[in-house]
Amino acid sequence: MPARSKVSESKTARGAGAGTSPRRTAAARSTATAKKAKTPAKTARAPAKTAKTPVKTTKNVAKKAKGALGGAEAIAEEAKTGAKKATSSAGKASRTTPEASARDRTSAPSAPTAPAPFEETFRKLREAHPDAHCELDHENPFQLLVATVLSAQSTDVMVNQVTPALFARWPDAAALAATEPEEVEQVINRLGMYRQKAKNLVGLARGLVTNHGGAVPRSLSELVALPGVGRKTANVVLGVAFGAPEGVVVDTHVQRITQRLGWSSETTPDKIEQDLMKLVPREQWDLVSHVLIFHGRRICAARKPACVSCPVNRECPSAFQAEQVGRKPPRARNGSPRRGPAGQNATSRGTPRPPS
After folding, report:
1. Is 167 among the domain residues?
2. Is 247 within a domain?
3. Active centre residues (catalytic)
4. Following CA atoms 53, 55, 61, 67 in sequence, which dihedral angle do they give, to the nearest 10 degrees?
5. Within a 10 A sphere around the Cβ of 212, how many other Cβ atoms?
6. pTM of the predicted model as reported, rounded to 2 decimal places
């Protein structure tokens, strides 16, 4: 038994000695140690890579956050725009009817399509102008007749500045009939066509003295027979002084507004008067002219009608497009028609242009 043990130990020692040299053993140990040393290095690099990953992730998150912020800003801007549109729509919806109509009717037909209903429209006009009356200052029918003759191609304001001196010097028909036109001219020379008017005043005064005993007649036919007295002047006197007009006074305001309201499609005063006499009850013939004149002077002006503040803009078929309706036709000047606003011909709507 002991002999075998020695043999085994010697074989083991021999095998160990034969298979592994001291140098190789040392090298193997060095390699193993180096491998062990590299392993921590790799492990150290791994946390570094792991450390870079959160940085990239943070950048990505930042980019996403920035994108989200931009999206939020875009949404906010969109919401703001929507709010503006909503406000604008609400403003349009809450706008008063006249203001809304001002935009809606700009592309409407140029001529009235249907007349305004007379009774309701005239009622509103009377309520808007309760003080409508003849604005020529006078104290009796003679003074009214004289003032009305002077008002042709002149304003009531200018006439009222002239008549006090005129009536102080010639208070009645007899006094005026005894003077000469040249003396009257000196008193009324601030008015247009004063020479012709002076001649007419002296002529009508003499006619009153000769044919009517110095009194103003109460019939249309007798009045229009006097110098300088036409149908319009006669109806002013008959309506204001005696309360018995034989027609409707159609001056430039009445003509313009009647056409704008669609109450007449005619363009001459005598034909417009006939239309109004059929439309308006006789007891209102005098009043309707005063109301329309007040309305024309204060609201429905020729060039810039104040349709927004007009009490009958709902009834008026020309509302917000009325500037050229009822205007006078163009006058030829050096072979060219008169030009209106913005280079447009100043023609009346529905009135044919005169041949050139």
Report:
1. yes
2. yes
3. 232, 251
4. -120
5. 15
6. 0.62
Does residue 268 have a pLDDT over 50?
Answer: yes
Model confidence at 248: pLDDT above 50 = yes
Helices 252-260 and 285-298: angle between axes, nearest 10 degrees? 90
Domain that holds residue 133: 118-330
Burial zone of 133 (CB within 10 Å; 0-12 exposed, 13-18 middle, 19+ buried): middle
CATH of the domain at 155: 1.10.340.30
Gap between the Cα atoms of 321 and 260, Å rounded: 9
Beta strands per DSSP E along the chain: 332-333, 336-337
- Domain assignment present for residue 345? The answer is no
Does the pLDDT value for residue 173 go beyond 90? yes
Number of H helices, E strands in the chain: 14, 2
Count structural domains, the chain. Answer: 1
Q: Is residue 314 part of a domain?
A: yes
pLDDT at 51: 44
Q: What is the pLDDT of residues 8-49, one digit of tens each?
A: 444 444 444 444 444 444 455 555 554 554 554 454 454 444
Please, which residues have CB within 8 angstroms of residue 262's CB and are 6 or more apart in sequence?
A: 112, 113, 114, 115, 116, 316, 317, 318
Report residue 199's pLDDT band, with 50, 70 and 90 as the boundaries. very high
97: nearest Cα among 105, 86, 89, 85: 105
End-to-end Cα, the chain, rounded Å: 157
Q: Which amino acid is at 305?
A: P
Name 203's Cβ contacts closer than 8 Å, sequence gap at least 6.
226, 227, 228
pLDDT of residue 67: 55
d(CA 314, CA 120): 11
